[in-house]
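Sample entry was shown:
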Amino acid sequence: MIELERPITDWLPTTREEVEKRGWDQVDVILISGDAYVDHPSFGAAVIGRVIESAGFSVAIIAQPNWRDDLRDFKKLGKPRLFFGVSTGCMDSMVNHYTAARRRRSDDAYTPGGKAGFRPDYAADTYCSILKQLYPDVPVVLGGIEGSLRRFTHYDYWSDNLKPSIIVSSKADLLIYGMGEQPVRELLRLLDQGVPFEKIRNLSQTAYLLADRGVYSSQEGWNDVELISHEICLKEKRAQAKNFRIIEEQSNRMVADRILQPIGKGLVVVNPPYSTQTTEEIDKTYDLPYTRLPHPKYKKRGEVPAWRMIRNSVNTHRGCFGGCAFCTISAHQGKFVVSRSEESVLRELNEITKVPGFDGIITDLGGPSANMYKMKGVDQKICVKCKKPSCIYPVICPNLDANHLPMVNLLKRAEAVEGIKKVYIGSGIRYDLLLGQTPDMQRKNGCNTYLNQVVTRHISGRLKVAPEHASNDVLKLMRKPGFAMFKEFKNKASAIALKNGINQQVIPYFISSHPASTIADMAALAIETKGMGYKLEQVQDFTPTPMTLATEIYYTGINPYTMEPVYTAKTLEEKDAQRRMFFWYLPENRDYIKKSLIQAGRADLLDKLYGGGKRPPSKSNPREPKAGVDRGVSSKSHNSRRKRG
């Protein structure tokens, strides 16, 4: 842990003593967080806390409160004047706790020392229920990734059940979904004007539960769309599939409708989101006075691993228009990209150079995908009419400004900041944004310039991209380009590295057991990667998470856009068989793979995989490259720090 020589008041208060040092008798807002308190712009509680502070209100944070004892942590700061704000942290608590095989994880990257067990399962429900029990007269506002992605009836993989909107199960008074700065500021303004909390019903980007749907009234200027009720969805999977298509299309619109879902005698009301933030608005968030450090109280407990990983990284933008079927970024951050100004990014880089222990290395300058900085629709009127999930699949939208030169310029300016030795890109790169353009557009938009600069100056030995699969059928469902484009990209990047005498690997990310993927598809993937010289080591098994197309297909067995059935590996045996295909080269997997392919009627693939019965190559052969891929189920988009290319 870095030695700190700063006054405790540089951090938002976390104890009664720290509150009193600020001269406060009572705070306006108390935030409850499932993560340790790290005062860094990549941690949600810190961002919302600083936003509240900048609006002129007092705020304190109770991080990782103990829910097993006499609840003293929840009581230590007393009642807030306005409301409690609850977030389970940068990840859904169940993703944080369990693997794709539903095995309990032994660590937690958002806890000092990486220790597990400092937050409950379904943490949002637990925290909100405790607060309503202790302070029934104090409003509770739920936010964060867990609240955001569970705002409608959703499939929960860990209980294998369809659950109601989290606004129902948590008993929170209000839900803020997505990136919360805009609704939080407006909520504070309304409360400060004396508007009763229970009267705040038309605030954008919020959801609430009406106990009696008969009292619902529409809002002028908003259109209403009603989903099939929760009860019918419990009985009919096709109803859940139909609902999802409406939800996804609305979440991908620039101007969305209010969405209503009946449950029992009540009604879940989800107001449309705010317009995408402007550059000026997002700059204000990142320009707030973060210390960029964990709270000093964790000094004896050890470092927070997630902070160690991202402490010297910088977000250049939010949102993603990739539309991948398995990804939650657009459902939470939004489909439309909002980019920071170069000046704001450079200010943050300068602040990093002043943090004790900075070694001169920026580990990542990017976003949910590295190369979407300052990209948006040329004609915004066309974007207003669009409800497609992706701007780049199956082809790049002709209305998308896919110019890479702004990022090229930003990288050059970042390198010139005094005190910075090297700027790396750790985010995944969307190679279809580079290669999916015509040759003329590639030249105009600086695609080759960008790739040359990245390969020669901004990669620390490993260039990460995410082809995800080799099967065209699977890739089509994923909304990802064909595998041939990955091969083209690898050859192009490798040629640049070879020309410049750089020892560099292109590291592909892959997923097993994704909807539509069969054991034969995985064998074909193994054959493709073997032919390219890869021996994969760390990979990801598909984990269903709320509010993704892939999860709805996993649960319903139906593609919501075609209403046709889709095969998905569900049993642990099926999933294990697919995952083992990544590790075809391990001797202990050979008999298992042989048996699996024979049972699937695809013994013809064995010769391609093992070369006519020859022993698989040794894992220790130093002449064969390995592709080590760190596949946590999280991302820099506030579901941890992994970013999908």
In short: The chain has two domains: 8-206, 312-628. Residues 8-206 form a domain with the Rossmann fold fold (CATH 3.40.50.280). The radius of gyration is 25 Å. Residues 483-499 form the longest helix (17 residues).
